[in-house]
Amino acid sequence: MELQALISNIKSEDIVEILGIKDVNVTGITSDSRKVTTGYAFIALKGVQVDGHDFIAKAIELGAKVIIHDEDTDTSNSSVTYIKVKDAADAIGKIASAWYGNPSQKLNLVGVTGTNGKTTTATLLYNVFRKLGYGAGLLSTVCNYVNDDQFPATHTTPDPISLNEFLAKMVEAGCEYAFMEVSSHAIHQKRISGLEFKGGIFSNLTQDHLDYHGTMQDYLKAKKAFFDNLPATAFTLTNVDDKNGLVMLQNTKAKKYTYSLRTLADFKARVIEKHFDGTAIEINGRELEVQFVGVFNVYNLLAVYGASVLLGEDLEKILIVLSTLKSVAGRFETIRSKDGFTAIVDYAHTPDALVNVLGAIHDVLEGGGRVITVVGCGGNRDKTKRPIMAREAVTLSDQVILTSDNPRFEEPQSIVDDMVAGLDPVQMKKALCIVDREQAIKTACTFAKPGDVILIAGKGHEDYQDVKGVKHHFDDKEIVKNILGL
Ligand SMILES: CC(=O)N[C@H]1[C@@H](OP(=O)(O)OP(=O)(O)OC[C@H]2O[C@@H](n3ccc(=O)[nH]c3=O)[C@H](O)[C@@H]2O)O[C@H](CO)[C@@H](O)[C@@H]1O[C@H](C)C(=O)N[C@@H](C)C(=O)N[C@H](CCC(=O)O)C(=O)O
Ligand SMILES: Nc1ncnc2c1ncn2[C@@H]1O[C@H](COP(=O)(O)OP(=O)(O)OP(=O)(O)O)[C@@H](O)[C@H]1O
Ligand SMILES: N[C@H](CCC[C@H](N)C(=O)O)C(=O)O
Ligand SMILES: [Mg+2]
Description:
It is built from 16 helices and 24 strands. By secondary structure, it is α/β, with parallel strands linked by helices. It has three domains: 97 residues, Udp-n-acetylmuramoylalanyl-d-glutamate--2,6- Diaminopimelate Ligase, Chain: A, domain 1 (3-Layer(aba) Sandwich), CATH 3.40.1390.10; 222 residues, Mur-like, catalytic domain (UDP-N-acetylmuramoyl-L-alanine:D-glutamate ligase), CATH 3.40.1190.10; 152 residues, Protein-Tyrosine Phosphatase, Chain A (Alpha-Beta Complex). The protein has an eleven-stranded mixed beta sheet, with helices on both faces. A six-stranded mixed beta sheet has the order 17-18-22-19-20-21, sandwiched between helices. Helix 12 packs across helix 13. The N and C termini lie far apart (55 Å). Bound molecules: ligand UAG, adenosine-5'-triphosphate (ATP), 2,6-diaminopimelic acid and magnesium ion. 2,6-diaminopimelic acid binds next to loops.
């Protein structure tokens, strides 16, 4: 691609200086010097661990002909074109978009952001539009889809080059819709720069990722930036039952819509009856039965309904499809044992998610049995949530087993110790510590009596346990089924 075309999405005021020949044909783009081959454009990004600018010389050695950078660097190589921009992270998204033919401009792209509910809401929207007969794509924590073709997900929101590559695949496959999760890391790192959204949905903001954002204020600011940058042609749909629901839309140019279970809103739902394998609800005056448990899932379904209406779909058709939807992998997946207790595998790995999923279990259990919770916390993630997770689990369970999740590069025992620090002596009586997650699940199954519920929280769909950067096969559902002889 001609260099001029490659940088055509970058505003001239965002380009500081161009040195060297301008009419260059670029053969590829990357922000990783290790992927450079002859004729490539290399975008130097200052990352969390290292600075891409330190690899410019290496990139040129490997044949890079264009260097895009935002920090001063040696520009003495006359066979190389140097483009200094104000912000390389903002530039790479626009370059990736141009490289792949601006795919987001050829799709109805809807982004979902918030602490919890992104995967559920984005996946259900994808399911709805596939069931309505459209070509649709999905970028999510669990899996990426181009129509029915599956691609493994390394991130909740991929890097800008991978992201635009997926969107281009969707355009090629005839997709009209694309649904994606927009993580706070992605917004902060500008992975979504250059994307044209048709709509943005906000689920909720509660504690998570404070290891990365530092404070809730900065976490909020990161999420809000997504809505601030949506164009006037887009719609926004926010949960006004969340105290930051309206804050998110304060400075957006996009059209504003709201959803709620409690107050006046464009899209309103009410819970009529809760039972173990579903919930009877009413949405904008129409009653339907959904195969989801938990008031939090009613919020997700209401967001799916609202977005579908805003995308122009027929109300009746949407409600019919909603009642056929099934739970997303690793979210509230129930396994019934032969001797009458139930295990639930769920992805809850934040205090709010734990409270919501345990609340949902109590709602349907109605005191008919005990709740035994197996939970751990990820290593190299927000440490401050650990004691809170333990406290919430103990408060809302009859018995808790604190264990490992993905220890990553931390000592498993020290993570459990951080969790225990949240418990007073009385609460400690209800908590056991078993660092080996399989042992913890086994112990919970031996404790359980007919009518009890075991919640196995935090890993959900994950089929690995990340220990010191090695992903060992580990699947909560598989382990429970083996223990229960199913
Ligand atoms: C903390 C974080 O988000 N890091 C992301 C970031 O990497 P980084 O900033 O650490 O990059 P770096 O290693 O410092 O390298 C900086 C630059 O130098 C370049 N480089 C590096 C080495 C080299 O030899 N040559 C070279 O050019 C790199 O390509 C990079 O462009 O940019 C990378 C490329 O986009 C991401 O893969 C990486 O995700 C890491 C692996 C990660 O674990 N991210 C998680 C925390 C994450 O993003 N999670 C969110 C939310 C999860 C959720 O709540 O669901 C997600 O969206 O998945
Ligand atoms: N709307 C919601 N409000 C609160 N908790 C929720 C909501 N939806 C789901 N949860 C809980 O949070 C867990 C994660 O849900 P989901 O995977 O949809 O969220 P996510 O935002 O994609 O999470 P992540 O940021 O880790 O990818 C679920 O397993 C459930 O326990
Ligand atoms: N079981 C995982 C869930 C979090 C994964 C994702 N939200 C992230 O932060 O990378 C953990 O706690 O390690
Ligand atoms: Mg997710």
